[in-house]
Structures are given as structure tokens and as C-alpha cells.
Amino acid sequence: MAAADLLTDLAELDKTLTSIETVLDPEGKRVQIAELQEQASAPDLWNDQDNAQRVTSKLSALQAEVDRLAGLRQRVDDLAVLIELGQEEDDADTLAEAGRELSRLATDIQGLEVRTLLNGDYDERDAVVTIRSEAGGVDAADFAEMLLRMYLRWSERHGYAAEVYDTSYAEEAGIKSATFTVKAPFAYGTLSVEQGTHRLVRISPFDNQGRRQTSFAGVEVLPVTEEADHIEIPEADIRVDVFRSSGPGGQSVNTTDSAVRLTHLPTGIVVSCQNEKSQLQNKVAAMKVLQSRLLEKARRDREAELNALKSDAGNSWGSQMRSYVLHPYQMVKDLRTDYEVGSPDAVFDGDLDGFIDAGIRWRRQQGER
């Protein structure tokens, strides 16, 4: 590619990055970082562990975002110098390297551009994610556990704090369900596109005849509630059951009845938590999940009222949205966006950004917000 063409394309990228900087406001984030650093240095920070985790997690995420923006800006500036050097020296190798860096830079800037599309009411909040095994028996339970690991690995890759609240183990293998939170700015907006039914096709490791099995797992993503949401739940509306925590295969992992199950009587919504050390901590965690589900129910009720006024409801939640095929070929494909990759192992190891970015763009195009 000629130097003039490289400079033209770089100017377009520079323009895109400038618009991203305008939306994401790195200077404003630096002010927030300074305030959070002051809070993080307080000697009594860890007296309130929930608040400490919130502060440190937000600080880490904001710092990473500012660093990412600064790194991209530096790469744009450096690339301009490289192109000019290649042009002055008439050096084909230098211009070729500049072309490769331009391609890499375009991919990275486009990935960050997706972040500017997260402007829903709850997008900036932490996320509560629940995974449930569906049709497919033991393969579905195993698949649900694979998805749990996938999302936890994705969180780990990004440095996001994740906390598992409750895991219900299946009898033979895998899990019946699991609920966890991802604590990071815009965790809900980012992960909400993962909601729906996931489908796995493979040779079943649990079938002694080696037959191909199709199984399903459901993913639900909710925003974490905040005090400003004012979700009041009268004590009379909740039934509290306590039970003994258990691990895989029903093996007891706790000798006291510390696990808590909450049933919201007016709606029938049931949540449980067993991973905390005390009954009180489990009840507090379960209440957070219950509030999130009631908040989401209220949102869906409002959405249903609006959809009733339309000829097309346009509600994709709960529909089958992604296939993971391990046999007779290797492919993971999103059925909404047509985004696909040929390396399921990488996806199950947390390499989800391509799918998430495509989903966010698709949602904006569909006007679901």
C-alpha cells in the first residue's frame, strides 16, 4: 500500500478514535480514578468487604480503560511517524510493517468503539448471571458447567472480579444451575447480549455407544440493583428456608444449615445462596439476586406493555442464540449475528470478545433498547 493511502486510512482511524475519546471521556475518568485511589488508601477500607471490592474493582477497570485509550492514541501517533519515515526513505519493508500495524490498530479501535454503544438504563452496572441446564440430560448439565467456566475465564481475562453465589450440582456430572456476579463497569451492558439459549452438538462422553448428542443450556443476565432502585420487599412476601450446603454428588461441605433459599410469594421467584460462610451472608447475597430479578421483571413488564402496542414485539430474549458444534466439524456460531469461529476450545476458555462485540452491534441495529 502506498504511503499516501496509509496516511488517508490512518486519518480515518484518528477521527474514529477522537470520537471515542469524546464519548468515553478519559479526563473525567482520571478524576474518578483519583477519587477511588483516595478511597482505596483508607486504612479502614476492608472493614466493609463489599464496598472494598466495589472500589478496587471499579478502580482497576477504569485504569485499564484509560490505559487502553492512551495506548491506542500513542499507537496512532507512532504509526504516523513510521509511515512518514517509510515515505521519506522510500522503504518498502517499513511501509509493509506500517500496513500490518494499521490493520491491527483498526481492529483494536473498532473493538473499543463497541463500548460507546452501551447506553441503556442499566448498562453501566454489575451483572448477575444465572446458567441453567435445559434439554439434554447429563450432557446439558455438563454443558452448563462448561458455560460457567467460560464466563468465569472471560472475567479473569479482563481482570473483572467474579463471585459465585450458588451452584446446584447435577447427580452424575455438571450442574443444574449456577448464579454468579461480574463486578466491573458496564458488566451488565456487555454480558446482556449473552442472554438466551445456547446449544451444544458433540459426541457425548456419557454415551457408551459414542453417539452424537445435542444439549441446551440457558443464560440469564440481570443488572445488579442499587439503592436508587427502591425495590422494597415486605418481609411478609418472602419465605425463608435454610438448608445444609452441599457439593458435587450431594457430598456435604458444611456441617451447619447456613445455605438460604428465598421464595418471593407474589411472583413465585426462588433464589438461593450457599457459598458464603454464614446464614446471614447467604441471605444478604440471595436478597441481592432476588432484587435484581424483580427489577428485571419490572423492566420486562414495561417492555411487554410497549410491545403490545406494536405489531412486532421484537423480543429476542430467551431464544436460541448460539451453537457450539464439536462434531462432525468444529465451529461456534452466533445465530443472530452470523459471527463464527472455528476454535471452540478457545471460546470455552473465555475468548468471547468477538461474539460480545458483534452482539452489541446487532442489538443496536435491531433497536432493542
From TrEMBL:
PTM characteristics: Methylated by PrmC. Methylation increases the termination efficiency of RF2.
Keyword Protein biosynthesis assigned:
yes
Q: Which GO terms label this protein's molecular function in UniProt? A: translation release factor activity, codon specific
Keyword Transcription regulation recorded: no
Question: Where is this gene product found?
Answer: Cytoplasm
Q: Which residues form a coiled coil?
A: none
Any single Gene Ontology cellular-component annotation: cytoplasm
Which of UniProt's keywords are assigned here? Cytoplasm, Methylation, Protein biosynthesis
Q: Which residues form the Prokaryotic-type class I peptide chain release factors domain?
A: 244-260
Residues the record lists as N5-methylglutamine modifications = Q251
Q: Name one Pfam family in it.
A: RF-1
Tell me the Gene3D superfamilies matching this sequence: 3.30.160.20, 3.30.70.1660, Release factor (1.20.58.410)
- What InterPro entries does the entry give? PCRF, Pep_chain_release_fac_I, Pep_chain_release_fac_I_sf, PrfB
Q: Sum up the protein's function in the record's words.
A: Peptide chain release factor 2 directs the termination of translation in response to the peptide chain termination codons UGA and UAA.
**Protein family per UniProt:** Belongs to the prokaryotic/mitochondrial release factor family.
Q: Tell me which PANTHER family the record gives.
A: CLASS I PEPTIDE CHAIN RELEASE FACTOR, PEPTIDE CHAIN RELEASE FACTOR 2
The protein's name? Peptide chain release factor 2
- Lineage of this protein's species? Bacteria, Bacillati, Actinomycetota, Actinomycetes, Propionibacteriales
The encoding gene: prfB
